[in-house]
Each structure stands twice: as structure tokens, then as C-alpha cells.
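Continuing the batch. This is chain 6 of the set; chains 1 through 5 are on the previous pages. Same settings as before, nothing changed between runs. Recording input and output for traceability.
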Amino acid sequence: MIEKNDLRRVMGHFATGVTVVTTRDGSGRHYGLTANSVTSVSLTPPLILICVDKKADCYPCFEDTKVFTVNILSEGQQDLSSRFATKGAVKFEGVDYREGVNGCAVITDSVGHLDCRVVLTYEGGDHTIYVGEVDGGDSAELPPLLFFRGGYRRLEG
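Output for chain 6:
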């Protein structure tokens, strides 16, 4: 079996987009985390999946409210990626957002967003895999923030 650090190194060679996945608790308070484990699953019905670390501060919200929004970050939002990746950070302070159709935060100036509700859940080691049915979303013509080999990257040309 491959070692944890070797897996991380090899997977680091797979370029990904960067997202902030937002959710909320039962009282409507917003939570979020940085994630690049986001995948389109199906067009009919419209399904995507996310993988959430069971130790994430906001993990209980996914279990409680069963809603989330994937915000695809633009290249100017590297600071948001870093902030939402930090445990215990005051994540929404000074962040411009609105609530989406599911009540989760839609971050302004992102490349796009998808508002989802959890329809399936799978155990995935130290993560839980949530399959969400997409209830709404939108996109903008902005350059995306990318992650490759341990650093943020930009599309060239």
C-alpha cells in the first residue's frame, strides 16, 4: 500500500481548481472550507460530489442541514482559499457574499457556484463523500484559481 506522503506527492501532480464549499448550521450561521475534491457525477439528474474531512470544524453542519454550495474561486481569491483552509479562522469576516437558494454563502467574484442538497452519503476513510443534487448555480467569465504541485497557479494564454 502507498504511504500517505507518497500519495500526497503523486496527487499533487494532478492540477485542480480550487473551491470554497460553504454550508450552514440549523440557525443559519455560515461555515466553509477550502476543497479541491469536487467532481461532476451526473447531468441527469444534476449531481456533484464533495469530500469533507471528518475533523473539519464545519463537518457537523453537513450532517445536520444536508446543504452546501460549491464556490469555484477566481485567480484573485487566493487569500480566501488560504483563509478557509485554516482551522479556527474567522472565515467570513470581510467576505462579500449573498445567500444562495439553499441558504448557504455564495461568494462574490467567484468563477461560479453550485447550490446543492445532499442526496447520498458514503464513508471514505477519514472523509465523508457527499453527493449533492444541484438546485441552482451560475458562472462568470473570470480566470480560475488552480492548484498544482503544492502551489497556486494561473492559466497561461
